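Could you join me in thinking about how sequence relates to backbone shape in a protein? To get us started, please write out a protein record for me. Would you write everything just below, so we can both look at the same thing?
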Amino acid sequence: MTIAPEQNPEPIFPEDLLEAADPSPAADAARTWYVARVKSRREKALASFLYRRSIGYYLPLMKRRQSGSSRIRYSLVPVFPGYVFVFADIEERYSAFTSNHVSRMIEVKDPETLLQELGRIHRTLSAGQPVYPVEFVSVGRRVRVKSGPMKDVEGIVVRKDKKFRLVLNVTTIMQSVSIQIDADMVEPV
């Protein structure tokens, strides 16, 4: 079901979640990162549920073109279908389960890596770069962008259709997105 743009949930709550969520155990022993595996097409519904209860979450959304019979429309769709990243304590985790949108919750074993990877995805989406979900990439050359709005974003460069693409991985859920980039804008890490 397509909803009006003004009815879409905030992609991140609170807005500074990725900067404020300290992954060290001493910082906030009660809260930890979870990956919510949601029931089919329930990502936005869960995000709205979490937002109304002031529970921290990140749902990366991208704009997708949908062509109809008479006009072209754009929808915001999840970058990683089936997943919402949740920063919660045990009671908030239980509350998310009561939403009837979650099929299971996966506790993140390496929150530092998750925060770095989600931060790269968030910066890319905030810069307005179009992203293209791709298969998870674990091999290839790791690079860092040298200049422009994507400066200091790290990823893996792959060559596809004679163009370079920078692949940004989220290893926790084994999903990736890619962006088109000029080869001279990157340097090896």
About this structure: The longest strand covers residues 163-170.
